[in-house]
Design a protein that fits this description.
The protein has 17 helices and no strands. By secondary structure, the protein is an all-alpha fold. Among the domains are: 114 residues, AhpD-like (Up-down Bundle), CATH 1.20.1290; 115 residues, AhpD-like.
């Protein structure tokens, strides 16, 4: 299980200092609830933000048990993979999607970013919602209303949460340049040529670490929870993680906070940025460094760690690939375990920001937004 970093799951101290006022309530969009400050009512006893939104889901393992069926859940995963130009995630899930009955014509609509003419109502709204979230970092009221009507509340939360989870997975895979195992076909057209700085056994930037007692990789069966070949994919990345305690000890809380802010900036995530900027200042992250991230200024004047992290995050989220030199510099500065853990921080927040955008999470009443949004 991935570690949880940051504070997007609930309000910080500043979030409870100011009560809701009539003016603040009136300033909210019509489809945003006054108690939760997002499009879904606050569940009694639940926290605000991402955790509170997830309380409205079905509670099942969405990929395998959603009432919408496997074809639609695989479509949601493909939509996330396509908009992140993630070839490994796409290719494995295209095979899975075909196996569970998703129409190949619908898959091609997503693959080639074609208009949704001819797609079914449910398929079209899943694709449209994902495209809008990933392109604009928002979900319009009109698209949200249609998705809510077509899918229902718990199914919509489930689908968005699934896309969020696979956004996080895409972030991890891209950061370590995970490529297809030998003999496996890559099905996604890419706007770039992936770097070749990979280990031939893991087909990624991370050296092969086998699970204890794991036999040589065999071709996995579809419908299983082990589609990724041994020594590749998210499970293999996880074997290179450390812990929150070791990351804080090795790089410091201020660097972790910078990773969170860089991720929020690249996703125009007002809620995640503002809540975490307040914490970052308390943890010693200098206002000048924060402003470089906030204004997307060149990182040339920063320290080696800060610059390496800024360049890494900007490439990762801006181009969906990290250059070999950028990766090598970050690896040298942070070390492999710490770098994988920092990638995990960014991945978790990139996923959370999908949920915050889809349900239009607003800041606590009276809290000034700290991120300029285009």
């Amino acid at each position: 299980m991935a570690m949880r970093y940051g504070r997007t799951l609930c309000f910080l101290t500043v979030a409870v200092l100011l009560p809701l006022t009539a003016a603040a309530q009136n300033a909210l969009p019509g489809d945003v609830q006054a108690d939760s400050r997002n499009r879904l009512p606050l569940v009694p006893g639940a926290t605000h933000g991402v955790a509170g939104i997830r309380q409205h889901g079905s509670g099942v393992n969405v990929r395998w048990q959603s009432a919408l069926g496997r074809a639609l859940t695989e479509l949601a995963i493909l939509t996330a993979a396509r908009d992140h130009d993630q070839p490994y995630e796409w290719s494995l899930h295209e095979m899975e999607a075909v196996a569970v009955g998703l129409d190949p014509a619908v898959i091609d609509l997503v693959r080639h970013r074609r208009p949704l003419t001819g797609a079914g109502e449910k398929e079209a709204i899943v694709i449209e919602s994902g495209r809008e979230i990933f392109k604009t970092h928002t979900l319009s009221s009109g698209t949200y209303a249609r998705a809510l009507k077509i899918l229902g509340k718990s199914n919509l939360v489930d689908i968005v949460d699934l896309m969020a989870n696979y956004t996080a997975t895409a972030t991890r895979l891209t950061a370590v340049n995970q490529q297809m195992p030998p003999g496996w076909k890559q099905f996604l057209p890419l706007p770039f040529t992936p770097p070749n700085d990979i280990h031939p056994d893991s087909m990624s930037r991370l050296p092969l670490v086998r699970a204890q007692g794991t036999a040589p990789a065999a071709t996995p069966s579809l419908y299983s929870r082990n589609l990724a070949p041994e020594g590749t994919g998210p499970g293999h990345i996880g074997r290179h993680r450390g812990s929150l305690k070791s990351l804080e000890a090795n790089v410091g809380r201020r660097i972790i906070d910078l990773a969170i802010l860089l991720t929020a900036r690249e996703h125009d995530a007002q809620y995640d940025w503002t809540i975490n900027e307040l914490a970052a200042i308390k943890n010693g992250l200098e206002p000048a460094v924060i402003d470089v991230a906030r204004r997307r200024r060149p990182a040339t004047g920063l320290g080696d760690k800060e610059r390496a992290l800024a360049d890494f995050a900007r490439e990762l989220f801006g181009t969906h690939t990290v250059g070999a030199q950028t990766y090598a510099r970050a690896l040298k500065i942070f070390g492999e375990t710490n770098l994988v853990d920092l990638i995990d921080v960014m991945a978790q927040h990139a996923g959370d920001e999908v949920i915050l955008a889809a349900f239009d999470q607003h800041l606590p009443a009276g809290q000034k937004p700290l991120l300029p949004i285009p």
